[in-house]
Amino acid sequence: MAWYPAARKMELQPESDSQAAIVPTQFIMHSIAAPWTKERIYEYWAESTNLESHFGQSYDGSIAQFIGTQTRADANYLANRRPDGTGAVSIETASNLQHTDPWTDAQIEGLISLGVWLHQRHDIPLRICRTADDPGYGYHRLHAAWSTGGTACPGDARVKQFRDVVFPGIVARTTGQPNPQEEDMTPEQDARLKYIESKLQKLYDQADVLPWTYKNTTIDNRDMHQVVRDIDARVEQLETTGLTAAQLTALSNKVADALAARLAE
Ligand SMILES: [Zn+2]
Question: Which candidate, 117, 118, 138, 116, places its Cα nearest to that of 127?
């Protein structure tokens, strides 16, 4: 049982004693779609059987901890506790009802401090989770396997803050370096990228257009969306180069298969 010294300890029972142990390998951030204090978040978990997180954060940045970080909490679906015993540490943060507002400066500071502690205490690696099981830092909607049926949580504004301020802030405070190290792709991501590239390369050779690659790109959901947009743009260009409709359809299907396989992880 590990408790974050800077948090107010508000132990949630029976979950804190009854739920299985985990080895924490990830930190996943949420918005709770309610402008609640950490105390109100605790009451909400205590009075219901909802999907509790380890931590709760008020708009003023202050944090409460409900469950030890080496015990399972239930906010992240398949990442709560995997068959190998690893799991995600989670925080719910105060937000507006639609979780469209940005984190306050105080919330950002609190998230960075907690993120640093999790790295120091549990060796969570300083990278953004490349897959649903990959150790590192993330936000709820980053991977489909972290929610049932998809979620927008924590909202567009906070996803941008996570990438621009919160995660870089955790890295900078931990390492003294301003930017995260560029991460290598996993072998699976590398293989899928090469598959897409090979399919595109063939079509470009046929169509007598320049090769197109996505080398050295760390693929996550955001990047995959960018890949899809770029492919769409490329296909539009190809339509003017004499490719048949059947060739274009085949390209779309191949790319869609590869993307679906990646996003289904
Ligand atoms: Zn969430």
Answer: 138
